[in-house]
Specification:
disordered N terminus; alpha+beta; 12 helices; disordered C terminus; 4-stranded antiparallel sheet; Arc Repressor Mutant, subunit A; Jelly Rolls; 6-stranded antiparallel sheet; globular; 10 strands
């Protein structure tokens, strides 16, 4: 891949971006799969990106400018040093400031990399870190881009080594959960457990059992931190996944229900309607209408 060429054959590149630079590496055994795609983008004042989901774990790093971010209904004012991860079943809306347009780097991880310790121990869809050093982010991302663009025999290996260093600088080991757990660390562990295993988890007690605490303690910690209950978070996560399945696949509604631990489509439909205000059958028909050629012309990423 050349220095200037955007990897549009692998991921969708947003509009209103200028002076962009990209690098990527394919997997030798499967040229259709990639290890990573890294990039630098200067966003224009009209940069406004919305997605209901994205197939790859992607780390976004802001180095200049400002804007607004909505990540699975969580709202943030973003600034230099703000880092966050998107990924499967994570909805987000990123909007650049019109007076201080964003400049950012990103790294999209292929499925093989996303299943490694980068995801399991440090990064995951929905991850947010607000206080990284912008100069540090720029330094390491420039090294990653320079090495990736070189396309040398060892460039892919070298890039992944640099990526691991960058990830550790953004989230050092000292910030990972440890025992004894603080309230914030336990909340983070619960959120990560739900994110990783929401399909099979079915109750608050199951979450508590996996973390070695009582369900009462979990509820008390979440209430103290002004958060909704873990079970409501789990239910919402299941429904977000269901919505993405309805949008992106033709999987029968009953199959989606079973995959999320529901014993029948009736209880699944009731839970879906409770969150979205309409049953999954209506959602699927509405999504098909929105994805029709006439509607697609009205929407841009």
């Amino acid at each position: 891949m050349s220095f200037e060429q955007a990897p549009t054959d692998r991921i969708e590149i947003a509009s209103h971006v200028r002076n962009a630079r990209y690098a990527s590496s394919s997997i030798e055994e499967n040229p259709n799969e990639f290890l990573y795609i890294s990039g630098y983008e200067e966003c224009g004042p009209l940069y406004d990106l919305r997605r209901q989901t994205f197939p790859y774990l992607t780390l976004e790093m802001i180095v200049r400018g400002g804007g607004k971010l909505v990540l699975n209904e969580r709202k943030f004012d973003i600034h230099p040093g703000f880092c966050f991860c998107t990924g499967p079943d994570i909805s987000f809306h990123l909007q650049s400031s019109k007076t201080r347009p964003l400049t950012k780097y990103f790294i999209a991880f292929g499925h093989e990399v996303a299943s490694s310790d980068i995801r399991s121990n440090r990064l995951y869809p929905g991850f947010v870190y607000t206080d990284a050093n912008p100069a540090m982010l720029e330094k390491w991302n420039e090294l990653i881009l320079e090495e990736g663009i070189s396309q040398s025999a060892e460039s892919a290996k070298n890039v992944m080594s640099l990526v691991h260093v960058l990830v550790r600088k953004i989230r050092p080991s000292s910030s990972l959960p440890s025992k004894p757990q603080s309230a914030n660390a336990l909340v983070e562990r619960v959120l990560r457990e739900i994110e990783t295993n929401f399909r099979e988890l079915g109750s608050l007690q199951e979450i508590a059992d996996r973390l070695g605490v009582t369900s009462e303690h979990l509820c008390r910690i979440f209430k103290t931190n002004d958060k909704i209950s873990p079970y409501k978070i789990l239910s919402r996560r299941k429904m977000e996944h269901a919505y993405a399945q309805l949008k992106m696949t033709g999987t029968p509604i009953q199959e989606i229900a079973y995959s999320l631990g529901f014993t029948d489509a009736f209880h699944f439909s009731r839970a879906f309607k409770k969150q979205y205000g309409y049953p999954p059958s209506v959602a699927r028909n509405e999504i098909r209408r929105l994805l029709s050629p006439a509607s697609s012309k009205e929407t841009s990423s």
